[in-house]
């Protein structure tokens, strides 16, 4: 058997495996390992298969990491949506409470405070000054 006879199946296997990898199918990677370990295949082709094997490991690691990130982001999104729903509910409750809030005042207390202010010396002093200013202005 010539070296080209052993290379053709190895190259065909390598081509099929690379095509599968390119299409996201990593289950056919075993063929790469067969090419890598086949002593009848030229060293350059085995090295190429080993390089592709390393690339597959890196791609799978990235995909695994990406899927973990997506899962974490999905969970974070779920938590944010729950927090938003809770805040909406709390805001609605506060709005309802605010709408019901009425300001009331005691008229008698207001009248007592007015009398307290108007009976003070300071208020009388201000009234006197205002009267003086008005009389000056009219003159």
Count of alpha and pi helical runs: 5
Q: What letter string, H or E per element, gives the SSE order?
A: HHHHH
Q: For the CA atoms, what is the radius of gyration?
A: 44 Å
Tell me about the largest β-sheet. none
Nearest-integer average pLDDT? 87
How many β-strands, per DSSP? 0
Percent of residues in β-strands? under 5%
Give the termini distance in whole angstroms: 134 Å
Counting copies of identical and different chains, the oligomeric state is single chain
SS-based class: mainly alpha
Task: Describe what you observe in this structure.
This protein has helices at residues 3-22, 30-37, 43-100, 107-118, 121-138. The model has no long low-confidence stretch (mean pLDDT 87). By secondary structure, it is mainly alpha-helical. The protein is built from five helices and no strands. The relative contact order is 0.05.
């Amino acid at each position: 058997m010539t070296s080209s006879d052993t290379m053709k199946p190895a190259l065909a296997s390598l081509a099929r495996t690379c095509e599968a990898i390119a299409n996201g199918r990593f289950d056919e990677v075993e063929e790469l390992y067969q090419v890598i370990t086949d002593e009848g295949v030229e060293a350059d082709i085995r090295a190429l298969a080993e390089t592709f094997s390393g690339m597959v490991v890196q791609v799978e690691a990235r995909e695994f990491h990406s899927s973990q990130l997506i899962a974490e982001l999905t969970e974070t999104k779920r938590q944010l949506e729950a927090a938003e729903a809770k805040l909406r509910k709390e805001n609605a409750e506060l709005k309802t409470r605010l709408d019901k809030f009425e300001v009331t005042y005691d008229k008698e207390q207001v009248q007592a405070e007015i009398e307290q202010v108007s009976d003070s010396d300071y208020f009388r002093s201000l009234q006197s000054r205002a009267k003086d200013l008005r009389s000056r202005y009219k003159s």
